[in-house]
Design goal:
about 260 residues, Rossmann fold, 6-stranded parallel β-sheet, 3-stranded antiparallel β-sheet, about 20% strand, binds nicotinamide-adenine-dinucleotide, binds (2S)-2-hydroxybutanedioic acid
Length: about 260
């Protein structure tokens, strides 16, 4: 329980008490909600994993008309699950309806890259989507809306969003760019048979694209350097190149690693 506001008024003390921030229902917008990530994400939001176990939410799910039926299916699943924190579900293909009143927006909707494409190759398609969605957030979302961009190229889309939703504070807009770091941690933890949480100081230089350079020079497990523990420069090079080459989905390296 928290005291949110306190006011003295001619002998009476008015105290506004809230339980966490759970007295207020937060509108959470999720674009691309019937896609692979969206379908996994919305139940997590409804369960309180994103905003906390005392935060009721109304989910506003947006997708495009060809996905309307699938989106409605996602809504039915959410209703079936009877999440106690879920106070309402809007499933819509109308960007204005999706953005109206939301205080958190998770932007997953977009054109995913196909085999052989780089993330910048989907930029032209996703730029126009992001302009339209940013304008709707600018006009209809809560003025202090927090925005998380997932759709690629995530950092460029976040920049577009910032440009086209100028009244949303810049510090409220961010994007997911940790994936390559986590990927490298995962490869090293598998190789050394240690917990991911034990792998420290891996660095990813560059962008979430073909320009990235995973660097384990300073990486450690316990107090030991990773290169010393792996004792196999060829594996390190291949493994880290694999992280980079996921960019181009050149999975042929998987076979090289398995054959090694
Ligand atoms: N930043 C990261 O770490 C990261 C990680 C994985 C995937 N991604 C990106 O996330 C995005 C989604 O990936 P996915 O695997 O769920 O793809 P997906 O194709 O399964 O889902 C995308 C969804 O977006 C919808 N969509 C397309 N245009 C839309 C629009 N204008 N408005 C609203 N919805 C729209 C599609 O109908 C679909 O339901 C892709 O751009 C992918 O590259 C980012
Ligand atoms: O490959 C993609 O474009 C999706 C995501 O960014 C990834 O790296 O898996």
């Amino acid at each position: 329980m928290k005291v949110r506001a306190c006011m003295y008024d001619g002998g009476k003390l008015h105290i506004k008490v809230i339980l966490g921030w759970g007295n207020f229902v937060t509108g959470v917008g999720a674009s691309g909600a019937s896609g692979q990530i969206g379908y996994a994400l919305v139940p997590m939001v409804a369960r309180g994993i994103m905003l906390g176990a005392d935060q009721p939410v109304i989910l506003h799910m947006l997708d495009i008309p060809p996905a309307a039926e699938a989106l409605n299916g996602v809504k039915m699943k959410l209703v079936d699950a009877a999440f106690p924190l879920l106070k309402g579900v809007v499933a819509t293909t109308d960007v204005v309806e999706a953005c109206t009143g939301v205080s958190v927006a998770v932007m997953v909707g977009g054109f995913p890259r196909k085999e052989g494409m780089e993330r910048k190759d989907v930029m032209s398609k996703n730029v126009s989507i992001y302009k339209a969605q940013a304008s709707a957030l600018e006009k209809y979302a809560s003025p202090n809306c927090k925005v998380l961009v997932v759709a690629n190229p995530a950092n460029t889309n976040a920049l577009i969003l910032k440009e086209f939703a100028p009244s949303i504070p810049e510090k409220n807009i961010t994007c997911l760019t940790r994936l390559d770091h986590n990927r490298a941690l995962g490869q090293i933890s598998e190789r050394l048979n240690v917990q991911v949480s034990g792998v420290k100081n891996v660095i990813i230089w560059g962008n979430h694209s073909f320009t990235q350079y995973p660097d384990v020079t300073h990486a450690t497990v316990g107090d030991k350097p990773v290169p010393e523990l792996v004792k196999d420069d060829a594996w390190l090079i291949l493994c880290l190149q694999l992280v980079v080459l996921v960019e181009l989905k050149l999975v042929v390296l998987v076979f090289v690693l398995e054959a090694d």
